[in-house]
C-alpha cells in the first residue's frame, strides 16, 4: 500500500513539474520556418545578450541601450556625427552656459499621457544622480536648470560644455508621474514614448514589444517586435540562415564568410565607434623610451591580424580614434609594418638584442588569437614574448592595478565625440580607464582646452593636435577599427545601424 | 522509514550551510569587481565607487557573510541580483522549469533507450546487435554534446527545415535538445545496464527460474532486471542531478533560458548573490535527488528497506 502510494506521489510530482513547465507556454508567432503567413506582422531580431534591465536610469551597455531605445526616446538622437532632433525638437546655446531646448508637441507616452516639460526636467534630474548616467550630466547645474514655459526647458551649465547635445542623445525621456508612483516597479513594465511599447519579458529568452501606432516619428509597418537573446554566436547565425529570426546582430568574424555566401541572407556592415588596441604599461621602465614604443608599433603587422583574426571585419586602426568619431584626424604618424625599422629603433634604444615581454589577454577568442600572432611577430624582431590568457574579470582587475606588461583591450567612444575618445582614455585624469598610464602634460592641456572650446573648428584643431602627439608618442598600437556586422533575411528592407550602435527598427519594412 | 527520511532532511542543513560558506568565501576571494563589470570598461571612478557603496561591497567579509546567512535564515531571502536588481529567488524560479523540462525529457529518452538496449545487448551477448550497440554507445560517450547539437541543428533545421533551430516555445523546440542530451547519457546507461545484467543472468537463481519453466521474458524482466537495476538507478539518478544543475552547453547552443547558463553568465559578471543563490538552490535539489534515489533503492531491493528501518530505530 505504502509502496503504491509513494509511486503515485512520485508520478504526481513529475507530472505537476511537467505541467508547470509546459503550461502557459506560447510559441511566439515568429518567422518560424513553418510559419507561412500572408503578410509579415512580426519582426524577430536576435541579439547576443539579454539587457540587464529596462530601467531608463540603469545599466547602459549596448545590449541594454539597444532595447531601451526602442521603448524610450532619447532627448536628442545621434545619427552618424550629426545630432538630430528627438523629443526635443530644437535647441540653442543662448550663451556658452545657457542651453534652451524646445519640446516637440503632441508626443505621447504609451499609456496615452502627454510628454510635458515637467517630464523632461524630471528625466534630467534623475539622470544626473544615477551612477549609470551621472557622468553625462556632470557639467549641468541642476539647481539652476528650469522650465521656462510649457514647451521650453533651460539648462544652465557649470562651465561651457559644447558636447551637451551629444550627452543629451544618451538621456531618456521618462514619465515623471508614473515613475514617482511606481518606484522600482516601473522597470518591470516600463512606459516610454518610443516607437515600441513594452509587452512581456520572458527572462533569459525574449522580450516582446508592440508597435506604437501613435509614434511621432516613423510608425512601424508591423505590429510586433520580438527581441531574442541568443548568446551562442553560431546559433544566432543559424537562426537567421534558417529563417527563425529576421535580423541577427553581433555576427562574429568567423561566421562572416558563410553568411556572405548565403543567398537568403544579406550581410551588412556598419563602421562603429569601437577600436581595438594593443597597450603597453607606460609606467614600466621598458616602455619609457619612445624608440621602444615605436619599435613595437612597427613590429606588429596589423593588417595580417585584421585579415586573419577579424576575418576582414573592420579596418586597420589609423590612430587613437575611430574614423567615425567627431574630431578624428587621419593625418597622424602611421606605423606601416616594418620589422627592419623596428630592429633599427631597438638598436638606437640601446637594446639590439631585444627584451622579454609578456602579452596578457582576456579569454575572448579574437584577443587570444591576436596575442598568438603578435607573439610570432615580436619574436621576429628579437623581442621574446610569452602569452597569458586570463578570465575576463580577473584580466580587467590586473589591467587596472597596472601589473601587466603588454595587453589587448578595446575602447568605444560611446558619445561619438573626440572628448570621450581621448580624455578618460589617454589623459592623466584620475580614472581607472587610462589603463596604459600614458601621461603627457601637453595632451592633457589640449584636451582640457578643447572640452570648453565653443568654436567647433577650433575644437577640432585642438583634438587634431592631441591625436598627432599621441600617435607620435605611440603609447598604444592602434590595431583595428570596429564594425557592427549584422545579417538580415533578404525580405527585410531598411535596416540601419548607426556608428553609435543604435538600431532604427521602426523604419524596417518587409518585401 | 519516515524517520529515516526526516533524519536525512535534517542532515541537509549542515550541508547547505557548508556550501554557503565555501561558495561565499570562494566568490569573496575571486578577483573581479562587480561594480566595474556592471558599469562597463568605460565607467568613471566616482560612479564605480558609489555603486560599490550601494551594493555593500566595501563591507568586511564577516559583515557580508553574516548579512547573507541572516537574510536566508530570518527572511528566507536569497538576496537581490546586482545586475537586474530583482530578487534572486524570482530569477531562479523563472529559469528552473526550463532546466527541469530538459532534464526530464532527456532522462526519459536516455532511460528508455539505455535500459532496453542494455538488456538486449546482455541477453544476446556478442551478437551483431550487441556489437553495434556497444560501438554506437562508445561513439555516443565520446562525442561532445555541443558538437552533436550543432550538427543536429545544421541537418534538421538548416538543411531539412523540419525542426526549429533554437528557443523553447513548444514541443517541436524540445526535440533536438532533449534527443541530443538524452542519447549521449543513454550511452552510459546502456553500458551500465549491460554489464550489470551480464553479472546477474549468470547467477544460480536465474538458472533455477529457467529450470522451473518460466518463459525467458519473465526470467529476464522479472527476476534478472530488478536485481540488475541498483547500479543503473545510481547512474540515472546522478545524471538527472547533473542535468538539473543545468546542461550549460545545451542551454547555450539551443538558447534555452535555463538555470545552468544563468549561473555561468552570473559568474562572468560577478553577480555574487545570483551565483550563491543558484548554487545553494542546486545543492538543495541535488541532496533531495540523492535522497529520492535512496528511497527508490528500497523499492527495488527489500533488503535495503529493512536496513533503513533498523537504522531509523537506532536513532
Series of secondary-structure elements of chain B, N-terminal to C-terminal: HHHHHHHHHHHHHH
Oligomer: heterodimer
As residue ranges, the low-confidence spans of chain B are none
Q: If helices are DSSP runs of H or I spanning 4 or more residues, what is the number of helices of chain A?
A: 15
Mean pLDDT of chain B: 84
What percentage of amino acids of chain B are in beta strands? under 5%
Walk me through this protein's architecture.
- The complex is a heterodimer of chains A (511) and B (315).
- Chain A has helices spanning 2-22, 62-71, 117-129, 164-168, 176-182, 233-242, 253-261, 290-299, 302-308, 339-348, 365-380, 392-401, 418-426, 441-452, 456-473, and strands at 42-47, 76-79, 82-85, 88-95, 98-103, 146-149, 152-156, 196-202, 206-211, 224-229, 247-248, 265-280, 315-316, 356-362, 384-390, 406-412, 476-489, 492-493, 509-510.
- Chain A is an alpha+beta fold.
- In chain A, strands 1, 8, 9, 10, 11, 12, 13, 14, 15, 16 and 17 form an 11-stranded mixed β-sheet that branches. Chain A has a 4-stranded antiparallel β-sheet with strand order 4-5-7-6, covered by helices on one side. Chain A has a two-stranded antiparallel sheet with strand order 2-3.
- In chain A, a hairpin with a 2-residue loop joins strand 4 and strand 5 (98-103).
- In chain A, helix 8 packs antiparallel against helix 10 (339-348) and helix 14 runs antiparallel to helix 15.
- Chain A is globular.
- The N and C termini of chain A lie far apart (66 Å).
- Chain B contains 14 helices and no strands.
- The radius of gyration of chain B is 24 Å and the shape is flat.
- The N and C termini of chain B lie close together (12 Å).
- At the A-B interface, helix 1, helix 6, helix 12, strand 16 and helix 13 of A face helix 2, helix 3, helix 5, helix 7 and helix 12 of B.
Amino acid at each position: 500500500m505504502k509502496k503504491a502510494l509513494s509511486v503515485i506521489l512520485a508520478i504526481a510530482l513529475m507530472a505537476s513539474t511537467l505541467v508547470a513547465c509546459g503550461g502557459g507556454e506560447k510559441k511566439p508567432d515568429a518567422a518560424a520556418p513553418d510559419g507561412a503567413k500572408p503578410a509579415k506582422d512580426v519582426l524577430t531580431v536576435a541579439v547576443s545578450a539579454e539587457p540587464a534591465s529596462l530601467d531608463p536610469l540603469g545599466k547602459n551597455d549596448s545590449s541594454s541601450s539597444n532595447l531601451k531605445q526602442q521603448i524610450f526616446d532619447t532627448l536628442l538622437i545621434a545619427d552618424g556625427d550629426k545630432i538630430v532632433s528627438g523629443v526635443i525638437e530644437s535647441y540653442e546655446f543662448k550663451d556658452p552656459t545657457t542651453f534652451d531646448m524646445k519640446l516637440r508637441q503632441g508626443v505621447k507616452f504609451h499609456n496615452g499621457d502627454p510628454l510635458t516639460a515637467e517630464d523632461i526636467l524630471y528625466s534630467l534630474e534623475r539622470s544626473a544622480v544615477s551612477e549609470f548616467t551621472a557622468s553625462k550630466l556632470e557639467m549641468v547645474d541642476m539647481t539652476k536648470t528650469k522650465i521656462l514655459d510649457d514647451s521650453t526647458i533651460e539648462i544652465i551649465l557649470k562651465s561651457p560644455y559644447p558636447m551637451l547635445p551629444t550627452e543629451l542623445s544618451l538621456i531618456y525621456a521618462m514619465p515623471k508621474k508614473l515613475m514617482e508612483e511606481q518606484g522600482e516597479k516601473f522597470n518591470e513594465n516600463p512606459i516610454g514614448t518610443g516607437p515600441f511599447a513594452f509587452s512581456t519579458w520572458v527572462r533569459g529568452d525574449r522580450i516582446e514589444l508592440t508597435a506604437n501606432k501613435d509614434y511621432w516619428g516613423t510608425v512601424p509597418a508591423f505590429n510586433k517586435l520580438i527581441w531574442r537573446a541568443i548568446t551562442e554566436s553560431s546559433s544566432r547565425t543559424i537562426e537567421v540562415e534558417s529563417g527563425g529570426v529576421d535580423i541577427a546582430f553581433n555576427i562574429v568574424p568567423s561566421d562572416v564568410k558563410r553568411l556572405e555566401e548565403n543567398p537568403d541572407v544579406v550581410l551588412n556592415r556598419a563602421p562603429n565607434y569601437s577600436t581595438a588596441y594593443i597597450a603597453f604599461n607606460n609606467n614600466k621602465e621598458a616602455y619609457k623610451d619612445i624608440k621602444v614604443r615605436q619599435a613595437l608599433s612597427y613590429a606588429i603587422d596589423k593588417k595580417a591580424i585584421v585579415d586573419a583574426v577579424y576575418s576582414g571585419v573592420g579596418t586597420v586602426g589609423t590612430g587613437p580614434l575611430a574614423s567615425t568619431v567627431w574630431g578624428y584626424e587621419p593625418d597622424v604618424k602611421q606605423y606601416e609594418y616594418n620589422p627592419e625599422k623596428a630592429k633599427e629603433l631597438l638598436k638606437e634604444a640601446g637594446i639590439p638584442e631585444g627584451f622579454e615581454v609578456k602579452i596578457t589577454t582576456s579569454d575572448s577568442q579574437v584577443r587570444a588569437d591576436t596575442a598568438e600572432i603578435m607573439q610570432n611577430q615580436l619574436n621576429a624582431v628579437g623581442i621574446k614574448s610569452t602569452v597569458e590568457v586570463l578570465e575576463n574579470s580577473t584580466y580587467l582587475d590586473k589591467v587596472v592595478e597596472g601589473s601587466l606588461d603588454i595587453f589587448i583591450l578595446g575602447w568605444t567612444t560611446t558619445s561619438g565625440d573626440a572628448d570621450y575618445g581621448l580624455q578618460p582614455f589617454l589623459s592623466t585624469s584620475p580614472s581607472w580607464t587610462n589603463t596604459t598610464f600614458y601621461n603627457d602634460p601637453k595632451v592633457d592641456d589640449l584636451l582640457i582646452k578643447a572640452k570648453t572650446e565653443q568654436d567647433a573648428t577650433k575644437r577640432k584643431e585642438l583634438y587634431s593636435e592631441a591625436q598627432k602627439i599621441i600617435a607620435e608618442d605611440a603609447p598604444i598600437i592602434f590595431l583595428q577599427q570596429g564594425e557592427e556586422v549584422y545579417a538580415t533575411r533578404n525580405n527585410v528592407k531598411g535596416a540601419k545601424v548607426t556608428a553609435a550602435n543604435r538600431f532604427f527598427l521602426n523604419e524596417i519594412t518587409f518585401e | 522509514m519516515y524517520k529515516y527520511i526526516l533524519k536525512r532532511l535534517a542532515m541537509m542543513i549542515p550541508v547547505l550551510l557548508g556550501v554557503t560558506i565555501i561558495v561565499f568565501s570562494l566568490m569573496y576571494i575571486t578577483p573581479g569587481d562587480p561594480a566595474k563589470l556592471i558599469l562597463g570598461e568605460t565607467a568613471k571612478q566616482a560612479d564605480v565607487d558609489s555603486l560599490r557603496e550601494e551594493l555593500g561591497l566595501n563591507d568586511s567579509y564577516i559583515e557580508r557573510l553574516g548579512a547573507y546567512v541572516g537574510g536566508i535564515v530570518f527572511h528566507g531571502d536569497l538576496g537581490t541580483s546586482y545586475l537586474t536588481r530583482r530578487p534572486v529567488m524570482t530569477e531562479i524560479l523563472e529559469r528552473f522549469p526550463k532546466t527541469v523540462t530538459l532534464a526530464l525529457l532527456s532522462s526519459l529518452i536516455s532511460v528508455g533507450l539505455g535500459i532496453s538496449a542494455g538488456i538486449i545487448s546482455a541477453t544476446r551477448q556478442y551478437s551483431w546487435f550487441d556489437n553495434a550497440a556497444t560501438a554506437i554507445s562508445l561513439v555516443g560517450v565520446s562525442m561532445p554534446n555541443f558538437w552533436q547539437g550543432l550538427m543536429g541543428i545544421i541537418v534538421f533545421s538548416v538543411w531539412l527545415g523540419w525542426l526549429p533551430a533554437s528557443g523553447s516555445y513548444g514541443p517541436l523546440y524540445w526535440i533536438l535538445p532533449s534527443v541530443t542530451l538524452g542519447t549521449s547519457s543513454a550511452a552510459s546507461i546502456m553500458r551500465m545496464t549491460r554489464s550489470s545484467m551480464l553479472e546477474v543472468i549468470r547467477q544460480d537463481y536465474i538458472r533455477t527460474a529457467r529450470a522451473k519453466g518460466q518463459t525467458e521474458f519473465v526470467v529476464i524482466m522479472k527476476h534478472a532486471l530488478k536485481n540488475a537495476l541498483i547500479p543503473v538507478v545510481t547512474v540515472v539518478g546522478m545524471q538527472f542531478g547533473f542535468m538539473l544543475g543545468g546542461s550549460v552547453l545545451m542551454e547555450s547552443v539551443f538558447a534555452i533560458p535555463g538555470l545552468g547558463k544563468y549561473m555561468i553568465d552570473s559568474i562572468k559578471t560577478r553577480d555574487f548573490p545570483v551565483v550563491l543563490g543558484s548554487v545553494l538552490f542546486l545543492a538543495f535539489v541535488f541532496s533531495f535527488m540523492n535522497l529520492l534515489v535512496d528511497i527508490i533503492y528500497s523499492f527495488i531491493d527489500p533488503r535495503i528497506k529493512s536496513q533503513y528501518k533498523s537504522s531509523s530505530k537506532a536513532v
